[in-house]
Each structure stands twice: as C-alpha cells, then as structure tokens.
Amino acid sequence: MGATNFPTSLDNGTSLPNPSATQDTNSPSLSDGQATQNNAVIAVETKLGTGASTPSGTYALVSTGTGSSAWSLATPASAIVGISDTQTLTNKTIDFSSNTISNISGSDIANLSITASQLANATITATQIANATITATQIANATITATQIANATITSSNMNLTKSGPDANGWYKKDYGNWQQYYQQVGITSLSVPANSYVQALTISVPVGVTNTSSLYFTTGVLGGYGGRIYATLDNGNVTAGVTTFILTLGNTTSSAITFTGFVGITADTV
User: Fold this and answer.
1) β-sheet bridge partners, residue 26
2) Which residues fall within 8 angstroms of residue 40, CB to CB, at 6 or more apart?
3) Omega within 30 of 0 (cis) for the link into 19
4) What are the tens digits of pLDDT across the range 170-205?
5) pTM score over 0.90
6) Element containing residue 48 per DSSP (H, E)
7) Distance, C-alpha 237 to centroid of its chain
8) How far is CA 63 from CA 42, 55, 121, in A?
9) By three-state DSSP, how is residue 166 classified?
C-alpha cells in the first residue's frame, strides 16, 4: 500500500480503496490510504509543475521550464495547427520576408492565374521568373499590350523577330507580328547616268506573297561613295493595289555623266 498508480495510470478502487463506515481503520489501512493519496497529490503536482498563474479566458497550460508551467498560450478559436497534420488553412497571411516557400507549380494554384492585384507592387520582372522568359502561352489571352508594361515601351530587344529570305524576288523579310519589313540590295554595274538627268536601271518585283502593294511604303538609298551625286527613285514609289513590279531609276545631280557601279538599298514597310 501507499503506492499511487499515477502518472503511469489512473488510481482506482484497488490502489485507493474507499472504506465503509463500519470498517476498522486498519482494514483497509488508513495510514496506507493516506500515504497513497499523498503520493498521488505529489505526482500530480510534479506533472503540472510550479507557477502562480491561474486559468484565464482561452489560454492553454504550457511548460515554462523544467518543473514549471503556466497558463500562458493563447488558444485559437478553431482547431490548433499541427506541424505534421494534414489540415486546410483559411484566412492566413504568410510574410515572404520571414518564410521560404518552394516547389510551387501551376497545378498548385487554384485557377492557374496570378494577377498584378495579387502582388505587392503589381510588378513581375524577369529576375523573379525561373527561366527569365514569359511566352504568350503562359498568359491567359496570349496577348501583351503596351499598357501592361511598366514604361509602355516595347523595343526590338524585347521581341522575338522572325527573319527569312531571300525570296524568289530577292527580298529579305523581318516579321514583327503586326508589321513586316522587306529589304534588299540591288547590284548595278557600269550604268551610265546622263548629266542632270536620270535613267531607268532595273525592273523590281514586289516581295513574294504581297498581293496588296498599296499597304507598302518604299524607300531607297544609294550605297557607296557617290556623295549625293547619284540618287535612286521608284516610279511607283508608293505603289497602288495590283501593281507587282516597279522601275528603279537612278538620277544624276551633276553637270557630267557618271558611270554608276554599286548597290541600291530598297526597303518596303507595311503601313
């Protein structure tokens, strides 16, 4: 007798028997029962530890050190979040400056969409993206407009330009999406250009695939060391619909005939 089951297990009628009013104080032994009670009280005190705090509101009893405890942990209104438990959290705020979140993929986001209003400064830069590249397939409507860019400027370095050529008529093409540019250099050998006059040099065909030449704006430039003495024009410079060829003409601004050998650059932009 005198041994309590606590804290291994709870005491019961065997370890702490309740004598009847007619039993002697030695059967069961009063002193043994008192000793068992004392041991049980000491075990409970040891389990709880010391500390003067009392239960208050929704505070939980927690350890404050070896042999001490206090009602000091404020408990949530709902379930307590466990480190290894599977739980659904709502209405929580995570401060990214104090936490590290990794391995988030598109499938982990409910609607696969993050908008500027969901970001602190409404700005995403290439350094904040894993491969520093955003393509149209990664954007909801596959469209980026100037209003969606911080300084409303798109430069050629921001775009993937498609280059091709030459086509069957000698044109190279740069495709900017909604705008195309065609260009070529035409070589001319030993063409005599009269003084203060002009001469037809070549017939040039429009770029392959262009059916409405009224949408093109042509410019020309003489390449080489002629210093303004020779100029180039197109007698269908801003050609009309249905025209498939135009004449390249060289003019001479000097009072002496010039034999021209060199190149003329021609550019055609869609307008």
Assistant:
1) 29
2) 4, 6, 11, 16
3) no
4) 999 998 877 889 999 999 999 999 999 999 999 999
5) no
6) helix 30-48
7) 46
8) 18, 14, 42
9) coil
Q: Are 268 and 212 in contact (CB under 8 A)?
A: no
Cα 269 from Cα 182, distance rounded (Å): 6
User: H/E/C letters for each residue in the chain?
Assistant: CCCCCCCCCCCCCCCCCCCCCCCCCECCEHHHHHHHHHHHHHHHHHHHCECCCCCCCCEEEEEEECCEEEEEEECCCCCCCCCCCCCCCCCCCCCCCCCCCCCCCHHHCCCCCCCHHHCCCCCCCHHHCCCCCCCHHHCCCCCCCHHHCCCCCCCHHHCCCEEECCCCCCCEEEECCCCEEEEEEEEEEEEEECCCCEEEEEEEECCCCCCCHHHEEEEEEEECCCCCCEEEEECCCCCCCCCCEEEEEEEECCCCCEEEEEEEEEEEEEC
Go through the domains of the chain in sequence order and give each one's CATH number.
1-76 (no CATH), 163-270 (2.60.40)
The b-or-e profile of 162-188 (16+ CB within 10 A means b, else e) is eeeeebebbbebbeeeeebbbbbebeb
- Work out the pLDDT band at 138, boundaries 50, 70, 90: low
Helix (H, G, I), strand (E, B) or coil at 118: helix
Name the token pair of 121. Answer: 């400064």
**Residue 140 amino acid letter:** A
